C-alpha cells in the first residue's frame, strides 16, 4: 500500500492535524482516498469525510471536480463540498460523512430507492450539461438513516455543452467551461483558477449548522503572495522538440512530439489526426460509444452505467463483468443484449463490431428482454459469492 494513502500520511499535514482527528481510512479510488475525520474542537460532533486527491492527478481534473461540486451545491443527492484546501500538492475536500449500507446486501425496496435517487441526481447533474462519466455503486452511496442518496464525483468528470439543451441556462453558467480544446494556451489561467478555488470564503460555510465558524476560518487559509499574480504556481512553459514545429492555438496541423518519445510520432508517420475522445470511467461501466472511441458522446453514457449497476443488483455480481479489457466487455455484452442490437448501436456512431465467436441469434418468438432475462438468471445461479440480505431491524431485535 502506498504511503501517500495512509492515515499516518494525512496526520503529517500540520494544517489538517491541528483541526481534525483522522479516525480511519474509508476507501480509495484511482485518484483519491477518503478518510473519516472528527473536529478536534467538538469531539462529540458528527464525523466528516475528508477526500485527499493524490499529487499526480492533473490539475485540470481537480479544477473540474471543485467547480462542479461548488456549482451543484449539494442539491438533489449530490454530495456537498463544505470546504477545500491545497497543501504541498495535495488537495483536500471536506464533505459530510455518509453512513451507508453495502450495496450487494440491498433488498428489493432498497434497490428501487437507490435507483430512484440515482436517476434524480443524474437528471439534476445533466441539466447543467455535466457528464459524470464514472457512475458505479462505489461512487453513489445510500444513506441508511435518512434515505438520501449522494453522488460522489471522482476525478474524471467532464462537461460537454450542447447548445440546444444549454440555451435555458444563465449566461454566467454557460461561461463555465470545464473542457478546453486549446489546453496549452489556457494552462496558466487554469492554474490561477485552481489557486482561487482553494480559498473559499468562510462566511459561505458558516451557514451550515454542522460546521463551526472557527473550523471554516481555519480551512480558508490566507492567499500566498507570489510574483505570478497571487498564484503559487509558476506559469507553464512549452518546449518544442528539435524535429518539429510547435502548432499555434487553433491550428489544424498535428504537433510533432518525437523529441518526447522513443518512437516516431503519428505526425511523422503520416497517420491521420484523430479528434480527441474522452475515455474516462471504469472498465465494465463504459458505454459502447466510449469503448468504440466515438466523438459523439452524450449524457447517455451515464445511463448505460446505471443499467450496468442495475445488472449488478439483479445478479449479485460485482463487478458485473470481471475482465480488464474494454473489448472483452463489449464482447460480453453482445452475448447479453444480442449481437444484432450491439451491431445496430455501433452503426449509429459510425462503427462496426466484429465478434468471434458470434453469440447465437435470437430464437423464434424470443424478444431481447427475454433473451437478457434468461442469461441474468443463469449468471445469478452460477454466482457463488451471493450475499444474503441482512435481517431488518425489527427482525434483529
UniProtKB/TrEMBL annotation:
Pfam families to which the protein is assigned, alphabetical: Pkinase
**Enzyme category, top tier:** transferase
Top-level division of the source organism's lineage: Eukaryota
Q: Where is the Protein kinase domain?
A: 20-397
Name a single GO biological process.
mitotic DNA damage checkpoint signaling
GO molecular function terms listed in the Swiss-Prot or TrEMBL record: ATP binding; protein serine/threonine kinase activity
Q: Which UniProt keywords apply?
A: ATP-binding, Kinase, Nucleotide-binding, Serine/threonine-protein kinase, Transferase
Task: List all Low complexity biased stretches.
Answer: 220-232
Q: What is this protein called?
A: non-specific serine/threonine protein kinase
Source organism phylogeny: Eukaryota, Metazoa, Spiralia, Lophotrochozoa, Platyhelminthes
